[in-house]
Amino acid sequence: MSKRAIIVLGSKEKEITEKRVKFVESKVKKFNNLRIIFSGTKQEVEWMKKYSKLNAIYENKSETTLDNLLNSKNLIGDAEKVWIVTDKSHEFRTKFLARKVFKKIPFEVIGVEVPFYFKIKKLWYEISRLIKHAL
Fold first, then answer.
1. 27 pLDDT higher than 80
2. Which DSSP state fits 84?
3. Contact predicate 89/114, CB 8 Å
4. What is the pTM of this model?
5. 108: left (phi over 0), alpha (psi -120 to 50) or beta
């Protein structure tokens, strides 16, 4: 069983999902024995399958970021380190939620760069969701 895992979070934006997957593909070549999980809605996971040749586990029952993390936690096995790949606009909230889910498992959230218009578009959404989770 792998001691390291990467969770790639899906996005409702096809272009952003592709950026996340391509980022992971460019980085994982130097790692052996790595468990990769594509997590999202059915549509998001289908996009990830389309964009990638990686041997990944498909988790397609998640509707929210919290779902992504909880459902993926059950699939990481005995991983001693988890990387969670999202994008820069989603990075802060993902870290906030991952602290709650991966209490005893070291993790790192990696935010892939996205176009400026996307960051602006997501700003209010991310703030409102963070407030919801914090209360």
1. yes
2. E
3. yes
4. 0.86
5. beta
| Rounded-to-integer distance, Cα 102 and Cα 50, Å | 29
What is the rounded radius of gyration, in angstroms, for the C-alpha atoms of the chain? Answer: 14
**Main-chain phi, psi angles of 107, to 5 degrees:** -140, 160
Bridge partners (DSSP) of residue 59 are 39
Token pair, residue 4, equals 């390291």
b/e sequence 59-81, b meaning 16+ C-beta within 10 Å = bbebeebbebbebbbeebeebee
Task: Give CA angle at 27 (110, 17), nearest 5°.
Answer: 60
pLDDT for the residue 1:
46
SS3 of residue 124 by DSSP? helix
